[in-house]
Design the sequence.
């Protein structure tokens, strides 16, 4: 089981000569939580003997992966469950805690079996880590045996194993990027991280641009797709692997783009359920999905953000960014207690003649260190944007590319390798002239 207490590492990157910028030192890397498939719409009743067990199950029920399930926690253990179901139908899943052993335990389980409806699954929570006891329970029809004390993520994984087809392909990890305010460079960082994961980890990646009227993923990769994510969102029930392949734009061997139309002559109605449905299909096709969120706050952006496996908040060292980053961090901490904390990227640090909040003060105010600090470097980023290149393509051995690889490693829990320099793609100015 993964350790949830995440230390906050800091990556240091350098820029051309400028006023000195304070940057914190890296700490130990965190362990990465497993990607657990969301549990379907089921009803779960838990009967506990100890308050701590009930609390752990209740916290699991508040997790995003159990959002569709209905969970009720009761006290009293197996006897209370038997009493209740003598008068009512049993739910999809019953979880019962017991401190009994031997004949008493199996007598209680026999009484529970007599009142269970066909199709009801049973998870027993015990206090003995005994293989022979486990085997006997499985022989008598118990679906899973968990040893107390419980951790919420362990409860979620156990329930997921019962209801998710073990032969089904794994779902991809989603990484959501959002700016603390407009103009922080969140999209640029999202696209560069997607590129780093695809090239440095040899992993298939889909970058999903959800800024439908103003998305820049097409520009950054010098692509002009005729179709994209807007077509999928208008009819999410039609999206399958075949249609997805037609809507994606292949940018490299392992990187595909689900581009935004970036037009203003259409009204886009964004629906939380449609976004969830589309992203579920995308996740089934690749190991990693980068979600580029616009700087708007609506029910659909909130749902997509909180449902992601990892969150990256890009901020600049000013008061508005600090306030907004803290608000987003506080929300995600409360809504995602079993997930890694959101990562902070502090961008454009050291801009000449601009008063700034020092990196250390920014970290103290929001309650966490920045995972990555990027000094102000308009020449590098401007050239990359105008050439339709990623930073690794333009300057693969530079400190900024090093910082992006560091962040990619933190998000995926895997090592990256520095790619060789590649020839520039055709100029972005030529792309814009084609659109004229």
Sequence:
């Amino acid at each position: 089981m993964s350790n949830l207490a995440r230390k906050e590492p800091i990556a240091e990157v350098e820029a051309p000569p400028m006023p000195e910028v304070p940057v914190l030192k890296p700490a130990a890397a965190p362990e990465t939580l497993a990607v657990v498939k969301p549990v379907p719409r089921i009803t779960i009743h838990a009967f506990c003997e100890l308050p701590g067990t009930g609390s752990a199950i209740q916290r699991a029920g508040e997790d995003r992966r159990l959002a569709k399930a209905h969970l009720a926690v009761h006290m009293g253990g197996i006897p209370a469950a038997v009493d209740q179901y003598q008068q009512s139908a049993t739910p999809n899943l019953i979880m019962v805690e017991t401190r009994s052993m031997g004949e008493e335990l199996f007598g209680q389980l026999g009484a529970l079996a007599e009142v269970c409806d066909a199709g009801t699954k049973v998870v027993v929570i015990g206090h003995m880590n005994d293989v022979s006891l486990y085997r006997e329970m499985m022989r008598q029809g118990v679906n899973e045996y968990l040893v107390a004390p419980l951790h919420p993520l362990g409860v979620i994984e156990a329930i997921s194993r019962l209801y998710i087809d073990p032969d089904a392909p794994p779902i991809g990890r989603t990484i959501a990027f959002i700016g603390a305010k407009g103009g922080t460079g969140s999209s640029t960082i999202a696209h560069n991280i997607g590129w780093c994961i695809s090239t440095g980890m040899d992993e298939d990646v889909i970058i999903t641009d959800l800024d439908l009227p103003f998305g820049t993923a097409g520009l950054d990769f010098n692509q002009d797709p005729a179709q994209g994510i807007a077509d999928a969102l208008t009819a999410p029930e039609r999206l399958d692997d075949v249609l997805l392949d037609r809507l994606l734009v292949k940018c490299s061997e392992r990187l595909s783009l689900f581009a935004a139309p970036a037009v203003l002559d259409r009204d886009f109605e964004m629906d939380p359920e449609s976004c969830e449905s589309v992203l579920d299909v995308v996740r089934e096709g690749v190991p990693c999905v980068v979600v580029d969120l616009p700087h708007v706050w609506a029910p659909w952006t909130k749902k997509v953000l909180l449902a992601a496996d990892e969150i990256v908040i890009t901020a600049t060292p000013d008061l508005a960014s600090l306030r907004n980053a803290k608000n987003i961090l506080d929300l995600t901490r409360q809504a995602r207690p079993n997930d890694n904390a959101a990562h902070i990227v502090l961008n454009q640090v050291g801009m000449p003649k601009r008063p700034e909040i020092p990196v250390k003060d920014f970290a103290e105010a929001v309650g966490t260190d920045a995972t990555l600090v990027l000094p102000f470097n308009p020449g590098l980023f401007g050239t990359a944007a105008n050439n339709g290149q990623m930073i690794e393509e333009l300057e693969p051995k530079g400190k900024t590319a090093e910082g992006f690889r560091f962040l990619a490693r933190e998000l995926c829990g895997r090592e990256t390798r520095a790619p060789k320099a590649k020839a520039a793609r055709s100029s972005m100015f030529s792309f814009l002239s084609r659109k004229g």
User: Anything to note?
Assistant: The chain has 17 helices and 14 strands.
